[in-house]
Design a protein that fits this description.
Layout lengths: L1 E2 L5 E4 L9 H12 L4 H13 L5 H12 L6 H21 L6 H7 L4 E9 H10 L9 E5 L3 H10 L7 E5 L2 H10 L2 E5 L8 H8 L2 E3 L9 E2 L1
Helix pairs in contact: 1-2, 1-4, 2-3, 4-6, 7-8
């Protein structure tokens, strides 16, 4: 059993962990790419689902360079990113927030809390401020265009992340980033987009829990 009160830092992914926003973003990738046709849009959507936790910047670069197989033009990339941001911003303001955040924050008063997400950093900070969620994350809210690997390494070097630390995520990339940074990891299953996550978690011996609310006691079975 993992005691969350043991940790000095708790790092949270956003989508699928704090916000029920995975399906919103999946649909937004399809909708934005649909200007190129259904087949292209589905290919980007599938790529997104296979690469959960990777930033939108990398995914739209993949759309241009690998799916469309054309030269990456900055203005085209910015246009796609803008269209995507417009589609997801309102949804992030209105989507479901994980139950149990307040109680878990009280249970883990000893810990510094951070958001480390593949979502756009400025967008995340606006959404969390508007939804009054920023008060929980005293360690800061971080996102793309920096990757999770870069953010974790930087915040470790800055001593904003102090070990023992644990990453709470819902994607394979979250687990890989946590492992690379030397953080423990919990995989939340309730809102994840990972297909056949049970077999993957069993294979990797990954600790799983349903959602934030199931962590309220501070203990993970």
């Amino acid at each position: 059993m993992t005691d969350l009160t043991y940790y000095k830092t708790l790092v949270f992914d956003c989508d699928g962990v704090v916000l029920n926003s995975n399906k919103i973003k999946t649909q937004a990738f399809y909708d934005v790419a649909s200007i190129y046709g259904h087949g292209i849009a589905k290919e980007l959507k599938d790529y997104h689902l296979k690469n959960g936790g990777i930033s939108r910047y990398a995914k739209f670069e993949y759309l241009i360079s690998d799916i469309l197989n054309v030269k990456l033009e900055p203005q085209v990339l910015q246009s796609l990113l803008h269209a995507y941001a417009c589609k997801v911003k309102h949804a992030l303001i209105t989507c479901e927030v994980a139950k149990g955040l307040e109680r878990l924050r009280q249970t883990t008063k000893q810990a510094n809390w951070l958001i480390v997400s593949g979502g756009d950093q400025s967008e995340l900070r606006e959404v969390f401020t508007e939804r009054r969620l920023d008060k929980y994350f005293d360690g800061g809210i971080f996102g793309s265009p920096d990757t999770k690997d870069v953010i974790l390494e930087r915040e470790l070097n800055n001593k904003n992340i102090t070990k023992p630390a644990i990453f709470i995520g819902d994607s394979k990339y979250d687990q890989q980033a946590a492992q690379l940074a030397g953080l423990d990891f919990i995989f939340l299953t309730d809102w994840t987009d990972v297909v056949n996550f049970s077999s993957w978690c069993d294979e990797k011996c990954i600790t799983t829990n349903l959602n934030i609310e199931s962590l309220q006691s501070g203990y993970v079975s």
